[in-house]
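tool_call: predict_structure(chain=1)
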Amino acid sequence: MDRKENFSDETVTYQIKLDGNLHEKWAQWLNGTIIKIQETSHTTDIWISVPDQAALRGLLNKLWDLNLTIISMTQHENESD
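tool_result:
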């Protein structure tokens, strides 16, 4: 097998760009995974930290439940230092 798997205990950070504005009151409902929310006039960028893909899927399902449109999602490397 030439597949590299990551079994570390570290969380992974994602930046998710949403169409529209996400009110800060929803941060608690999203299990406190939100690191930062940045709003412009038409979009919201949220940075989240999740321990695994199951947690990411749960958060994406919650965004779906809020009827929000995801424009993009980018994985960011965590700082090791």
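agent: The radius of gyration is 14 Å. Proceeding to next step.
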